[in-house]
Every structure is written in C-alpha cells, then in structure tokens.
C-alpha cells in the first residue's frame, strides 16, 4: 500500500472533514480553516499539527495580528459611558461640579476623568456663576464615535486591529493596554496567524479520499438501534486501526512512599515496639517545655515553628507534671541540677503550635509508659524550612524511646545502626557528637547517599533527668528522632526529597520498593 493510501485510511473524522472543506485550496489561513470546516479553533489547531506531523501540510508564512476584545470597562459601559452620563445630566440645566460627581452608576474618579475630557473637548463649559453647562452647539462626534466603536467590539466580541480605520485604531490604542490592564475599554493581544500550504503528499491523500468516496460524516459506534432499523447499511464507519497499541492499564496500588511508611510500621511492631499517636497541634508546654528546652534561649530556634492563628492558646495546663516541669526549669528541683534559673512563663507554655518534631509524643508518653518498654511513632511534622533536595516544609519523623534499667548510649548506637541499615538500606553510616537540650549525651546519625553524599538522618541521645523525673520516670530512657523522608530517598533510590510527592505518575510508577515493604 502506498504511503498516501495508508495515511488516508487512518485519518481521524476531523481530518476527513478538514480535507473535504479545504482539500481543493492551494493555500489557506487558520481563520479560513475554522470558517470553512465547521471545526472549533482548538480542533483546527489539532488537525493542523496532525497533518504537519504526517508531512501533508507545511507553513508558508506566519503573520502576527493584533486582536481587539472588550475590556472590563467596555462591559460596564455597555449601556452608558461616564461622558454620556454627564451630557445627559447637563440637559436638565447648569450644575455644580460636586453635584455632577455624585452618581449611583459610576465612581467619583470615573466621573472626574470624564468631566476633564469633556471640558478639554469644549463640550462642557463654565458659566458666570461658576456652574457647569453644556456648550451650545458643541461637537459630540467624539463621544458618538466612541459609542459606535464600543458597540462594534461588544457586538462582535472580537475583531482585529487591521479591520478598522486608522482613526478607530488610534482610539482603541489610546483606551487600552496590551498587558494586564483590566480597567480599560479595550484589551489588545497578539495573535499569530499561520498560512498553510498542502504538500504533494497532502494532495495525493486528498485525491485518494475523493476517489474512495470516504465521507466526512463517519460513525464511530454501531448501536443496537442501527441494527434494528437497518440504518447501518447507509452509514460510513470509521476504520479500526489494529496497529495502534491499546492504552496501558495500571493496577491500583498504594503510593510507594505510603508503602514505605507502612513497611516501617510493620517492622517496628514486629520488633515488639508499641505505637504512639498524637495530634498535629500541640501546646508549647509539651513541644518544648516538657523537653527542658529553655524558654529564654535561642535553642528554641532549633525547632522553628508555625504558630496557630486562632485559637492562639490552649486552656491552662494544670497538674503535678506541669508544676514539676516548671520547677525543673526554675531551679532543677528534684533533678540534681540548677535548672535554667529563670522564672517559668506559664502563659507562653500555652501557645499553640504545629508539631515541629516527633519528640513531643515521647514527652507525652513518658508518664504512661511501662518499664521496661519500647515505643515508636510515625509523626508528621512541620517546620518553615527552605525547600530543597533534602528539606521539606512538612515531613515524617520516626520517633522512638526505650525505657529500662539497663538502657545506655551503646544500646542506642546499636539501634540507630539497625534502623539505618534495615529501614534506609544504607551501606555507610557514621555518628557525630551533637547537642540537644533534652538529651545528654547526644548524637547525630549520618548516612552516605550515592548521589547526594553524606546527609543527616536525625538526632538521638539519652533523656536528661529534667525530662524524665518530672514525669515520674526514674530509669534511663534512650530516644531518637529520624527523618523518614530521607530514609525513603535512600531506600527508593531518589536523589531529591521532592520526588516523593511528584505529580508525574510515570515517575511514581517506576519507583522500586525496598525489601522492607514487601
């Protein structure tokens, strides 16, 4: 089969209609294609791109035309312009300027601008008593021409600048802006018009369509009604192209990151951990004060937070725990320390914040935890961080604590190594000394990403007595907070944290899940 025959056989009904309307023309514009084919502008553009891809159409030349459309003011002035309104008012007799400015239909600024224009044209003058009057025999052609032009644009809805006279063009350009001005009579925009030319292949396709008698009115679907009344015999059916691959069908499944988080949860539960759960909005007491973060110190900047606008405060926090936390801050009472030696501000501790770190759940759980016991949380946290390849404004954190008489720093390092290897699938791990107000000693765990390099997973340490004793816990408590988003980056083979939430479904479907989620 010749090339033109195979192209003609596979034409879409819109393309067939396009050929029947324009096949006998040597050259035509997009505007003519819309007018003659009966297709919409978008359909014509689609057909043109199809035919260009098949090398049946070529562009002979492109022309940029200025399109004129009604602006916001044109729609408002459909019935009457401010200038026409002023002339109408003065037909009733002289009036003071301040009286003319007061109008229910137009704003004072619009009336003032119109008044200035009419006075410049000599249509409105001032009498001996300093009142405004309509000048006898004044030339109203300027106002009338504006009305005619306005009606023309409103009636057509859209026209081109080269379709009106030079005088009208000057008027349109004076009362419009090309970019972004909504408060104008007219809106101008550039439109690129293409002139198209059939290629030799396109002409061959057209001649074949004529010889085959293929109709532009084709039927896509054979219905029971056609079979019942026999009307299918007189209809032209669209050809089925069996060479076109069918659309891919994707089985529904969870997002890879969601599967990763669920896998982390299953793994920790299998290790005997109990899950802690909490709320996204926390008072500053639990988020910072209960963790012995000083109220006066810049250490609170470690966890920059989003403040809740309304309500700003939670109810007063009463109870023995609140009093013991306050005493630990002020004097270290019962904690074998001197505390921060500053008055405790109970009002600021009630401020409501979005959860900025998962350790707040450990602080809440200490008073209800069993000894020995081990707990974890998968907590969504929020910080006003600058988003980049390894930072996000909201993220998931794997928080955990283990309570027991024999818990120590060595045990903590062993757990952190286990998490980095089993959850993040990291090959290279290192520990660095760190400072956190609520742990001593403290450590940061880092893993090596093949593309990003060394990146911090999170912090950990042994809770200070100022954190545990006010909650009634007397045994050592090891604690950690690790970034699950960064773990998932490593496990899923990503080099940018933003790809965890990519809208590109093809990219998401291509992610390979680690063993932990199987």
Describe it.
The chain is α+β, with helices and mostly antiparallel strands. Among the domains are: 72-185, Arc Repressor Mutant, subunit A; 258-280 and 354-517, BirA Bifunctional Protein, domain 2 (2-Layer Sandwich). It is 35% helix and 20% strand. It has 20 helices and 18 strands. Strand 16 (439-449) and strand 17 (453-463) form a beta hairpin. The chain is flat.
**Taking all residues together, what is the mean pLDDT?**
86
Q: What CATH architecture of the domain at 258-280 and 354-517 do you see?
A: 2-Layer Sandwich
Q: Report the CATH C-level class of the domain at 258-280 and 354-517.
A: Alpha Beta
Helix content: 25-40%
Parts with pLDDT < 50 across at least 5 consecutive residues: none
Strand neighbour order, sheet with most strands = 10-13-14-18-17-16-15
Task: Specify the structural class.
Answer: alpha+beta
Q: Report the C-alpha radius of gyration, rounded.
A: 38 Å
What is the CATH homologous superfamily assignment of the domain at 258-280 and 354-517? Answer: Bira Bifunctional Protein, Domain 2
Strand content: 15-25%
Outline type: flat
Number of strands: 18
Distance between the termini: 51 Å
| CATH fold-level name of the domain at 258-280 and 354-517 | BirA Bifunctional Protein, domain 2
Instruction: Tell me the number of helical segments per DSSP (H or I, 4 or more residues long).
Output: 20
Q: State the major sheet.
A: 7 strands, mixed
Oligomer: single chain
């Amino acid at each position: 089969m010749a090339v033109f025959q195979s192209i003609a056989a596979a034409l879409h009904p819109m393309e067939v209609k396009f050929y029947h309307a324009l096949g006998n023309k040597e050259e035509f514009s997009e505007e003519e294609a819309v007018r003659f084919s009966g297709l919409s502008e978008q359909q014509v553009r689609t057909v043109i791109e199809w035919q260009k891809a098949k090398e049946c159409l070529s562009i002979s030349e492109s022309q940029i035309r200025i399109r004129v459309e009604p602006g916001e003011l044109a729609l408002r002035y459909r019935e009457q312009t401010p200038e026409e309104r002023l002339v109408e008012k003065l037909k009733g007799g002289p009036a003071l300027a301040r009286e003319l400015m007061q109008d229910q239909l137009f704003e004072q600024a619009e009336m003032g601008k119109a008044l200035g224009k009419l006075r410049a044209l000599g249509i409105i003058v001032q009498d001996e008593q300093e009142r405004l009057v309509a000048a006898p025999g004044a030339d109203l052609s300027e106002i009338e021409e504006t009305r005619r032009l306005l009606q023309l644009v409103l009636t057509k809805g859209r026209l081109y600048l080269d379709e009106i006279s030079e005088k009208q063009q000057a008027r349109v350009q004076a009362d419009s802006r090309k970019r972004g001005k909504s408060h104008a009579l007219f809106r101008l925009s550039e439109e690129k018009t293409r002139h198209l030319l059939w290629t030799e292949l396109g002409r061959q396709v057209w001649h074949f369509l004529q010889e085959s008698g293929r109709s532009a009115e084709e039927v896509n679907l054979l219905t029971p009604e056609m079979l019942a009344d026999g009307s299918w015999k007189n209809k032209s059916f669209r050809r089925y192209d069996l060479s076109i691959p069918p659309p891919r069908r994707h089985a529904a499944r969870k997002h890879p990151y969601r599967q990763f988080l669920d896998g982390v949860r299953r793994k920790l539960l299998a290790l005997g951990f109990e899950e802690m759960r909490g709320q996204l909005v926390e008072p500053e007491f639990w988020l910072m004060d209960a963790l012995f973060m000083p109220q006066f110190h810049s250490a609170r900047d470690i966890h920059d937070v989003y403040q809740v606008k309304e309500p700003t405060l939670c109810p007063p926090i009463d109870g023995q725990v609140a009093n013991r936390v306050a005493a630990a801050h002020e004097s270290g009472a019962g904690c074998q320390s001197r505390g921060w030696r500053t008055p405790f501000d109970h009002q600021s501790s009630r401020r409501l914040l979005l959860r900025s770190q998962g350790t707040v759940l450990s602080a809440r759980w200490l008073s209800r935890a069993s000894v020995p016991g081990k707990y974890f949380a998968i907590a969504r946290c929020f910080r006003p961080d600058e988003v980049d390849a390894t930072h996000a404004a909201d993220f998931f954190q794997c928080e955990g604590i283990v309570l027991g008489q024999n818990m120590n720093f060595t045990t903590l390092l062993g757990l952190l190594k286990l998490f980095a290897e089993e959850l993040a699938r990291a090959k290279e791990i290192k520990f660095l000394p760190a400072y956190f107000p609520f742990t001593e000693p403290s450590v940061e765990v880092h893993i090596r990403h093949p593309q990003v390099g060394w990146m911090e997973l999170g912090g950990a340490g042994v809770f200070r007595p100022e954190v545990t004793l006010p909650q009634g816990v007397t045994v050592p408590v090891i604690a950690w907070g690790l970034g699950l988003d960064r773990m998932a980056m490593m496990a899923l083979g990503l080099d940018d944290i933003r790809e965890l939430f990519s809208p590109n479904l093809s990219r998401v479907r291509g992610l390979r899940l680690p063993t932990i989620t199987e």
